[in-house]
Amino acid sequence: MLWFENCDSTMDICHRFASFYDKDLLIGSSRQLSGRGTKNRVWESPKGNLYLSFLLFPRKRQVHTLHMIAALSVIEFLNINKLKSTIKWPNDIMINGEKISGILQENVYKNQSIQYSILGIGLNLNMDQKLNIDVPHTSVKLITSNVIDEKKSGNKISSLFSKFYLSKLSDNQISNLWKKEIDTISKEAQVLLLDGTELKGKVLCVDNNGDLVLKTKNDNQIIKAGMVKKLTISK
Questions:
Q1: Based on the domain organization, do 152 and 132 belong to the same domain?
Q2: If we measure between CA atoms, which residue out of 43, 14, 52, 81 comes closest to residue 150?
Q3: Which of 13, 123, 179, 205 has its C-alpha lying 20 to 30 A from 214's C-alpha?
Q4: Model confidence pLDDT, tens digit, residues 55-102
């Protein structure tokens, strides 16, 4: 892992490396000055948290399983620290309804062939006060009062990621492990699509491709990308 105490964005560093480097790489930092989330939303990145980006040239794994492996790695890391978490589809790691981690995947294609993929993980470790954002959130320190070393945590998550990524588990088996951690099934949801459209309905399931199947008033919708804004338990 290449470690920075401060950087602009671990994602952007990986993109720069990909222009001349062709091996898997991990970039880590405890602070980002220009962190970003889905659809280039600003990702608040104060010092003391963990920001990781994996530059991957996937040859044995299907691209859609990479973010699943990242989520499973974060969940196992939190389990080691005696914290039970779940996934809010597609890539938010939650504890008691509050976001503690988010995952971002960016794929670069050429002639419909994957060139490389970058997985970003943001994990709230040592944040000791809430940020001024409209998403309920928490951190390991806010829950446990414990301070955890950011760099050592990055190395541990890297080890967990490699365990899944290089395992003999099939992509379907990875997908099934990931689906077991999702708390979104059988709930009424408001889903914001990438084009700004909002859908409401009951979440029926998540398929093996990681797509959300939503039963709306008119039909069933298969949602490949979007953000679940609100969840309520169906009666």
A1: yes
A2: 52
A3: 123
A4: 999 888 999 999 999 999 999 999 999 999 999 988 899 999 999 999
Phi, psi for 199 (deg, rounded to 5):
-120, 150
CB atoms within 10 A of CB 136: 11
pTM for this structure? 0.89
Which domain does 216 fall in, by range?
187-233
| Partners of 137 in beta bridges | 99
Sign of CA dihedral 48, 156, 55, 61: negative
Q: Are 211 and 225 in contact (CB under 8 A)?
A: no
Say which residue the tokens 């997985």 belong to. 119
- List the structure tokens of 85: 């978490």
The DSSP secondary structure of 170-210, one letter per residue, reads -HHHHHHHHHHTB--TTEEEEEEETTS-EEEEEEEEE-TTS
Annotate 33-93 with three-state secondary structure: CCCECHHHCECCCCCCCEEEEEEECCCCCCHHHHHHHHHHHHHHHHHHCCCCCEEECCCEE
